[in-house]
Specification:
The structure holds 2 protein chains of 2 kinds.
Chain A (H helix, E strand, L loop, with lengths): L15 H15 L5 H4 L19 H14 L14 H11 L14 E4 L11 E4 L14 H20 L8 H18 L19 H15 L4 H17 L11 H6 L10 H6 L24 H4 L6 E3 L1
Helix pairs in contact in A: 3-4, 4-8, 5-7, 6-7, 6-8
Chain B lengths: L2 E2 L3 E6 L3 H10 L7 E4 L7 H4 L6 H6 L12 E4 L7 E2 L33 H9 L17 H15 L7 E2 L2 E2 L23 H12 L4 E3 L9 E2 L5 E2 L26 H6 L3 E5 L2 E7 L5 E7 L5 E11 L3 H10 L24 E9 L16 E3 L18 E5 L6 H4 L13 H11 L3 E8 L8 E9 L5 E6 L4 H20 L4 E4 L43 E3 L14 H17 L11
Parallel strand pairs in B: 1-14, 2-3, 2-14, 3-11, 4-20, 14-22
Antiparallel strand pairs in B: 4-5, 6-7, 8-16, 9-10, 12-13, 13-14, 15-18, 15-21, 16-17, 17-18, 19-20
Helix pairs in contact in B: 1-12, 5-12
The chains are: A mainly alpha, B alpha/beta.
């Protein structure tokens, strides 16, 4: 059998660019100085997504979410990021698929009253938590994802206009980074970590002095009001990562851009002990390309025998 | 009106690991019947795990975990703070479904060290009673390592553990764990394959004079047939292990091992999608059976001679606390107020992390056991005379099964300024497979201030109070962590990373971040009803026809993972029920 990694033609269902990307990720095993992105070359990316199509988000919301994801994992056609991987389609599909959370969640009340330092005590009978301790308990707000997006996006635009006179999606990239950095700082401050003292882009470009930071955090907090600006950012960040790095089965990670980025061969059935030490030459693939199990295990047991569900287990 | 079923000898709350073990060990040699009431669905190696390599479903959306919308647990850091529910998975991940959490487990399979079983006596004799802080309520187990060794041995062979013996009958074997207690036989299978990073860790720690050894794994390194006749395949190192069911049955679980012989008798029944809502008692306080609600919402009653609470630690505690009656006003096992005491956890942290620029370690292969361990700083294997704490931690290199999705949420924490943006992306692309760490699982001693009771505010889907956990680390653990973290830093530095980040202080316990599903204690075993809930068989002192299985029995949490020991204890309990209990039903076993 020919080594799949050196086959000359791309397999069905995978773009040429992704195929080359996979090859280059494998190249990284041997040419350690070459990362997958430096070797990735290919035709211009031309993905098309139809905003608002049968999902949850409106076209305008799609544009904003796409812009956010494009700053969380930036990219271009030579080095795909969240926009090229169509992460916004993943997020839209997720929001449309789940009225509440995609994961099991306990949503019974009472919900908590947050006590800010220096403020009066909570309503009698309410469960009150000091603001600086809240992070230790995890999600407690009761705000569901659809609401977080629908109400958070206008707040983001309002904060963007207050600072740079345009909606978020229309800002320059460094301005977008500056906005998201403030939200990230708010999130980190809520976890007891000091904000990093600058409102620059993550690439280090200063957008303002360190002294401006807490002022910007306060300004953003005031505009976001009852939507937690830090939670809005971490929701967007987590959803972007899910759309970038989960199986393309779930509609993000288009052309397996996220996996090729890091040199992950995706879903494989098995690796050998030798591969564990030396690496592998497998082509990156989705779970949808995984072959069926070899159910006979070489000893002639028919499939039905292996699929037996033992008697004695039944719904109560 | 509840549907009442025919009386059986044993009913278990939960169709998980210890329930299947009891059934497999008790039924073939008796005419008894066992019924398990399981809240989750049934699932089988074929076909349910054949196509499950989906990180989003299993790791982000918790496909195999208990349904939090039905039951959760509240937590507070101390008795003066408010308790809030775990609304989404954080600190721990208990499973549900046929086979329980031992289907999605990582399969590290430890024997506890001999001194673990005589904890208070050991530390008092070696260092003096004043070394144990007043608030620390650690105590001895009611059995010794030697008592449990034959059961450890049998369980290891039933599970086909892959590992390297370190102490065979008192003789230290090179390459194994020299600190383990003497074992009567070597492991039935050789260690799993080594990883590239693991080899580096072993070489570095050997140079430091330490004793690295391969992780003993409940995952087969080669084909294996156990005494029940289960014919099992070896591990494929596919990289989808913790939080997944194994598609070839190489990872030992109730499905691979105990359910087949138990179900084959025709006298074991598991009723799925059914939730136990109460242990019923007679006026004299004896348990009569369990009440449950099935998938259609209908109430049923299953009478039984013995009720076994075989759930996850936290639900075992709650099952007893909720069983309130005139005979047991504070719940079964709680006549002396001992249920919920000595709740402990496992200190799971990553003190040292490094980047080896340009190296690829293939972390996405393998499983959670394909890494070596160092036990030189675990338990009391090192002299604490001049130290300001007691206890220790097992230390290990990062293992396999790394996923890009899970890595995006923290792999580069401490190594990049932000966890998003262009710099983060470039570093993630470059280093995703080049970042390795030295991690720990450390002890959690028991304290009077760490305990579980019923929550006054939050209810489950059936209107019953949730369990409330009161838990926080203490000064002893902060000091222990500081010492252990320095050792981890030395090990990491000896591996020569290009860059590194260290966490030298123990962060406050938080409920929202996954650390470990090894919650222990709360229904602890002991020699005396005055300081424990059960005897050494897990038999409840004040209600001897109720048994508790699992890690809720542990008086405190030793650092190594709990599963092999809770299996050995379940084997010992099964033997006692099978051979002796029914000679004098309702009497305490001695």
């Amino acid at each position: 059998m020919p080594d799949p990694a050196v086959q000359a033609v791309a397999p069905e269902g995978i773009t040429r660019r992704a195929f080359i990307g996979a090859g280059s990720a494998l190249g990284g095993l041997m040419l350690v100085a070459c990362t997958s992105d430096t070797l990735t070359v290919g035709p211009e990316h031309n993905h098309v997504h139809a905003p608002g199509e049968s999902g949850y988000l409106t076209g305008e919301e799609m544009r904003t979410v796409d812009a956010i994801t494009a700053r969380i994992v930036p990219g271009d056609d030579m080095d795909p990021g969240a926009r090229q991987a169509n992460v916004v389609a993943y997020i839209d599909a997720k929001l449309a698929s789940f009225e509440g959370f995609a994961e099991p969640s306990y949503l019974s009340g009472p919900f908590v009253d947050v006590i800010r330092s220096g403020s009066a005590a909570a309503m009698p009978g309410a469960i009150a938590v000091a603001e600086d301790q809240l992070y230790r308990y995890g999600y407690q707000s009761g705000v569901l994802p659809q609401e977080m997006y629908r109400r958070g996006i206008p707040k983001l635009d309002e904060y963007s206009r207050s600072r740079f006179d345009s909606a978020f999606a229309d800002l320059a990239e460094d301005q977008q980074d500056a906005i998201l950095t403030v939200l990230d700082d708010i999130q980190q401050a809520s976890e007891g970590q000091s904000a990093r003292g600058q409102t620059g882009s993550p690439s280090g470009q200063q957008q303002g002095g360190g002294s401006q930071n807490s002022g910007e955090m306060d300004a953003a907090r005031a505009i976001f009001a009852d939507i937690d600006a830090g939670a809005f950012f971490s929701t967007l960040r987590a959803d972007t990562m899910e759309g970038m790095f989960s199986d393309p089965l779930h509609r993000g990670n288009e052309d397996m851009a996220g996996w090729i980025l890091v040199g992950y061969p995706g879903i494989q059935r098995a690796y050998s002990p030798t591969e564990m030490l030396r690496g592998t030459r497998r082509r990156t693939q989705s779970i949808e390309s995984l072959p069926e199990m070899n159910t006979d295990r070489g000893d002639g047991i028919p499939l039905e025998a292996l699929q037996r569900q033992l008697p004695g287990v039944r719904e109560g | 009106m509840a549907t009442e079923h025919e009386r059986v000898e044993i009913v278990t709350i939960g169709g998980g690991a210890t329930a299947a073990m009891l059934a497999a060990l008790i039924l073939p040699e008796t005419s008894h019947r066992v019924v398990s009431i399981e809240q989750g669905d049934d699932r089988w190696t074929y076909p349910d795990f054949g196509h499950n390599h989906d990180a989003l479903a299993h790791e982000s959306r918790y496909a195999m975990m208990q349904d939090l919308s039905q039951v959760s647990w509240t937590w507070r850091p101390d008795a003066n703070s408010p308790a809030l529910p775990m609304r989404q998975y954080g600190s721990f991940n208990p499973g549900q479904g046929l086979g329980g959490s031992m289907v999605h487990w990582t399969a590290l399979s430890w024997r506890f060290a001999p001194e673990t079983f005589e904890y208070r006596t050991h530390y008092t004799e070696r260092y003096g009673a004043d070394r144990i802080p007043d608030e620390m309520t650690v105590q001895d187990w009611p059995i010794s390592y030697d008592d449990l060794e034959p059961y450890y041995d049998t369980v290891e062979y039933d599970m086909g553990i892959s590992g390297q013996a370190g102490n065979l009958g008192g003789t230290i074997i090179p390459g194994g764990n020299p600190f383990e207690g003497p074992r009567s036989r070597p492991y039935p299978n050789p260690p799993l394959a080594e990883s590239a990073f693991g080899q580096m860790f072993s070489a570095a720690t050997k140079k430091l004079g330490l004793h690295p050894f391969p992780t003993p794994a409940g995952i087969l390194s080669r084909g294996y047939t156990d005494r029940f006749g289960n014919n099992r395949a070896a591990c494929l190192y596919c990289g989808f292990c913790t939080r997944y069911g194994c598609e070839v049955g190489a990872k030992t679980s109730p499905i691979t091992t105990w359910l087949p012989p138990a179900l084959e008798t025709g006298r074991y029944e598991v009723r799925t999608r059914s939730h136990v809502i109460g242990i019923e008692t007679a006026p004299d306080g004896t348990a009569t059976g369990v009440r449950y609600v099935n998938a259609d919402g209908e109430e049923h009653f299953q009478p039984a001679d013995i009720v076994v609470s075989s759930s996850y630690t936290l639900e075992n505690i709650r099952n007893l606390l909720l069983a309130r009656s005139d005979a047991h006003p504070d719940g079964i096992g709680n006549d002396r107020g001992m249920v919920g005491k000595n709740y402990t956890y496992q200190m799971s942290q990553t003190p040292a992390k490094g980047v080896w620029e340009g190296r690829r370690f293939h972390f996405y292969m393998g499983n959670g056991c394909t890494a070596p361990q160092v036990f030189d700083y675990d338990s009391d294997h090192f002299d604490h005379s001049d130290l300001d704490f007691i206890g220790g931690a097992r230390i290990f290199a990062s293992a396999g099964q790394r996923q890009p999705l899970e890595s995006a949420n923290g792999l580069l924490e401490g190594l990049t300024d932000r966890q998003w943006g262009a710099d983060w992306k470039a570093s993630f692309a470059q280093n995703w497979d080049s970042v390795g760490s030295v991690g720990i699982n450390g002890e959690s001693p028991a304290y009077a201030g760490n305990f579980c009771d019923l929550d006054p505010n939050y209810k489950d889907a059936w209107g019953r109070p949730l369990l409330r956990i009161t838990f926080g680390w203490r000064e002893n653990e902060r000091r222990m962590y500081r010492f252990i973290a320095e050792r981890c830093a030395e090990m990491l530095d000896a591996m020569g990373p290009d860059r590194a980040t260290y966490t030298r202080e123990l962060p406050d316990y938080r409920y929202d971040v996954y650390q470990s599903t090894h919650a222990t204690g709360g229904c602890i075993m002991g020699n005396d009803p005055g300081d424990s809930v059960t005897n050494s068989y897990g038999q409840v002192w004040d209600t001897p026809n109720v048994f508790v299985t699992g890690a809720a029995l542990y008086p405190q949490n030793p650092s190594p993972n709990p599963t092999l020991t809770l299996a050995a204890l379940a084997y010992r309990t099964a033997e006692a029920i099978r051979d002796r209990y029914f000679d004098a039903p309702g009497e305490l076993l001695s």
